[in-house]
Amino acid sequence: MRLNLFPFSLPILGKALFVISCAVSFYFFVPLFLELRTYFSLDQSVEADRVRFSIVETEDQQFKIGATYTYQVGSQEFTLSEIFEKPLFDNPHQLKKSLMETQDQPWIVYYSRRHPEISSLKRSITAKKGIDFLLAACIAIYFKLFFSSTAQALQQPVEERMKGKGDDSGAPQ
Predict the structure, then answer these.
(1) How far apart are the first and last CA of the chain?
(2) What's the pLDDT at 101?
(3) Helix (H/G/I), strand (E/B), else coil: 36
(4) Domain check: are 25 and 52 in the same one?
(5) Which of 7, 54, 75, 90 is most buried, most CB within 10 Å of its CB?
(6) What is the domain extent for residue 63?
(7) Residue 103 phi, psi (nearest 5)
(8) What is the pLDDT of residues 54-110, one digit of tens each?
(9) Residue 146: which pLDDT band, with cuts at 50, 70 and 90?
(10) Number of domains in the chain
(11) CA nearest neighbour of 116 among 72, 161, 165, 155
(12) Is 45 helix (H, G, I), strand (E, B) or coil?
């Protein structure tokens, strides 16, 4: 009597895990794609004319750096505001100390050549988003490969799978 550990077939389980892992991969791909699109669209840079920093309090009682900056592209002048996601500070005094250190340095504005009104003071890619997507994609590929080879092996008759495992291996008797 054969013991059935799964109340459903392995190929169906494999397809379900593959679909779920593809959905998770897509979940991680979307923010990565948006960040990469923003990174590559900000293809020009210019030094900011004026940068004014502020303290922004979050809902969970932490503090972020806010910046209002002015820059010029050709004859057009743009003034935009931005809130930096990182670093986060626990109290405003730490933030003020950090601002005092960075206030005097020159700031570079990265902007889009096609739409100069789209800009940022930071042009970076978060490695974590890329790593999360790659791990999820590798898991999806693993499920696809493992369960497709398992399904093929289960479809072969037992006699074919056992071929070559008997006493006729060619060894002298």
Answers:
(1) 33
(2) 78
(3) helix
(4) no
(5) 54
(6) 43-122
(7) -60, -40
(8) 888 888 889 998 999 999 999 999 999 999 888 888 888 888 888 887 777 889 999
(9) confident
(10) 2
(11) 72
(12) strand
